[in-house]
Amino acid sequence: MWFLGLIVGAIIGAVGGGEGALFGAIVGLFAGIAMSRSRQVVDETWKKNVEDALRQLHQRVEAIERTGVASAQAPAAPAPAEPAVEAAPAADRRVAAMSAAVGNEPPTVAVSPVPAKEEIPAERPSAPKAPSQDPFTRWLFGGNTLVRVGVIVLFFGVAFLLKYAAERDLVPIELRLAAVALGGIALLIVGWHLRAKRPGYGLMLQGGGIGVLYLTIFAAFRLYKMLPGELAFGLLAGMAAFSAVLAIVQDSRSLAITGVAGGFLAPILASTGGGSHVALFSFYAVLNAGILVIARYKAWRELNLIGFAFTFIIGLAWGAKYYRPELFASTEPFLVLFFLFYVAIAVMFASRQAPQLTHYVDGTLVFGTPLVAFGLQAALVRDMEFGSAWSAFALAVFYIALASILYARRRETLRLLVESFLALGVGFATLAVPLAFDGRWTSAVWAVEGAAIVWVGVRQGRMLPRIFGLLLQPAAGLAFLAGADRAFGATPVLNSFYLGCMMISAAGLFCSRYLESRRELISGTELVAARILFAWGAVWWFVSGMVEIDRHAPDAWGLHPYLLFFAGSCAAFGGLWRRLDWDMARYAALAILPLMALTVFVQFGAPYAQRHPFANHAYLGWALAFAVHLWLLRLHEGREGGWIDRFHAVGFWLLAVVLSWEVGWQIDQYVEGRRVWPLIAWALVPGALIAVFAARGDRLGWPVAARQRAYLYAGALPLAIFLLAWIIYVNFRSDGNPAPLPYVPLLNPLDIAQAAALLALATWYLGVKRLELPDTKLPDSATAIKLLGVVLFIVLNGVLLRSLHHYADVPFRLHAMWNSNLVQASFSLFWSLLALAAMVVATRRAMRALWVVGATLLAVVVAKLFLVDLANTGTVERVISFIGVGTLVIVVGYFSPVPPKSLEKLT
């Protein structure tokens, strides 16, 4: 109906040009609203008729009851007739049926036997049939359809009359306008006289009359220039007041809306551009005071919304065009007054009925009023230092105080309104801090208010607000990033950048938590969005913290602040998980392990002075980080899942890396030697860890005793493989220079570290075998000994080469070693000695496999003599090689002439 009125009004108003079309559209809009509201009057009339019929029936039942009581007190009363006994229940059923028709409880009727003197009508009273529920049918056939059509036709007729008369100049313009005005007044008078007999008919006539008068005043002022601005303003204001009085007297919100809208439009339509804003806002203050008075007695939501929209939209338009800083003193009081008006209207409306916030007007007034008012206030104080901050602080104090007062007085019926005001107070208090340091606030407000909209949408059970609030979160983040190139505040933490990031993060985390806690009220898609928002909020939290540390922490502190931030943040998420039973927070808490690994990776690129984990007292951060890691794993104890063992194992690896790195760096600093000193730490620390855990793991307590497989197998096996790889690496790459100590074969730091590593590997292997841990796969004893023999062969050859390097000055390079006659001769003799030892031991212990290994090694030596050493003609090394190898072969032949027959396994 309102759309039809808008179109018709625009067509009629087009007679006077573009402005006339606009005004006609507005008048038609409210006329359509008035017609649609007449349906309510018809419904009320129908209900009133039903209640009258019910009242008459009730009186008849009471009359029957009195007659029955009098008959019961008479001395020889005849027996009641059978039909009369059934009449009272029938009447009772009629009462119940009629009461159900109007939604009321039927009156209590005491039924007693009555004589058959009072005849009960067989037919129950008829009631008007309820109007159709179809909107178009209700409009077309509900109430008086003819008068609705007639009002529309009348509007067309008035417009065509004005146009016809204007084109032909048949009648002076004054008479034309006066005639139209008299027609509007006649409609008002007729409608007023019919208000009791035909209320729906009368209200529509009154609405049409008011519209005609508005149109006439507008045409006289704007189109024909016949009225001065002051007089036109007064007439329009009078029409607004008059229509409001009519609306209140007749309990018609459509007339009230028409009057209020006309009142707000009156100064705009009558304006010449040179009026006073004080007069304008004073008039609006009077109108809003009237709306406030009406709100005290009438819960007319549409009226509140229209007043709110007109007040702040017109105020915004005026401010954008005319406001200057010198007008602050005369403008600020009106903004505060209008803000208080609509806060009071929201409270009054909530006082009349429990604030379920299921109607959009409620949400608009409760949340829209502070948002719009603060936006206008920020524009007014933009030239004042900390103006926005003080304004946000004042709003925070106001809303928190108002929430406290309402909670103390009406804590149950206004509970949701109190929660809304408290949320607004906290939001503005949070906003005041970044505003006090610089002016970045819009994006943060979007995120916080989006979270508030999600909260309200869930409480209301409405999908659209929830979707809007969720979409505001990424929109706020993108808007914030778009302005990230602006200047940052110099104060650490208390600057708009970091606090804005925190607000975006907190809004995302709040939305995620609240939606998850109300998962029975939301859809599956929203639940997925809640989890995405958690990741969104957590990323904003961690990344903004790292950016803030990078901007404000001195470079000399290194990565220590990052470790403290990671540990504190993950501990906080762990606390949220435990206290709120928030499962998503658990994943953010467990991020401590990858964040620690990231810190180690970044540490490799630090300057040399800081290129160790404990630089700048970072041992405190590492201790706290590992403590948080173990605390979180302890909280997970008893949960099923192999991932827990993996977290224990990875933490063990990380501990070995951090300690090895730090011990190596410290050794290098205190010894001030060569590269071999820091290198040995990478064998000593992992070897000590796996050896101690394997030897005493079951007595170390939690976590090793409780998670033996995680530490002794999943954690220790990669370290054991690393130790084997380290042994091979150092024998090929390190010359073992122990400066400032002299090099002594087998007693230098590198050889001792290798021996310790091999001992640790053996201890670990035997310990794991002894404990018989489940789901472990280690090589059998025979394979392990073969592997140990290969490693020992590499180690002993490395000792030989390093000795030749230090005592014979042979360069420790592959090409130089290969071309050295001394090295080749040494290899031949050394390998022959190893073959001799192996074959003798194999013969005495009857170990055929070991004898075959020794014989093979001896054959390799002999082949090497004729293929490599024979080419070194005229050298001492060739002579020594052949004589030495030949002697050793003869010795082997004496002690171990043939391979042993026994095939026993090695023990």
Calculate Rg over CA atoms.
Answer: 48 Å
* Strands, count: 0
Task: Determine the number of helices (DSSP H or I, runs of at least 4 residues).
Answer: 32
Point out poorly predicted stretches: 1-23, 37-43, 69-141, 355-361, 902-907
Write a structural description.
Mean pLDDT is 76; it is low at 1-23, 37-43, 69-141, 355-361 and 902-907. The chain is 75% helix and 0% strand. Helix 7 packs antiparallel against helix 8 (229-250) and helix 18 (496-517) runs antiparallel to helix 19 (524-552). The radius of gyration is 48 Å and the shape is elongated. The longest helix is centred in the N-terminal third of the chain and has 56 residues, at 18-73. The N and C termini lie far apart (102 Å). With 907 residues, it is an all-alpha fold.
SSE layout and pairing:
Layout: H1 2-13, H2 18-73, H3 82-102, H4 135-141, H5 145-168, H6 173-193, H7 199-223, H8 229-250, H9 253-269, H10 277-297, H11 301-322, H12 328-352, H13 360-380, H14 387-410, H15 415-435, H16 442-460, H17 463-482, H18 496-517, H19 524-552, H20 560-580, H21 583-589, H22 592-603, H23 619-635, H24 642-671, H25 676-696, H26 708-733, H27 749-771, H28 781-808, H29 814-818, H30 821-845, H31 848-867, H32 876-895
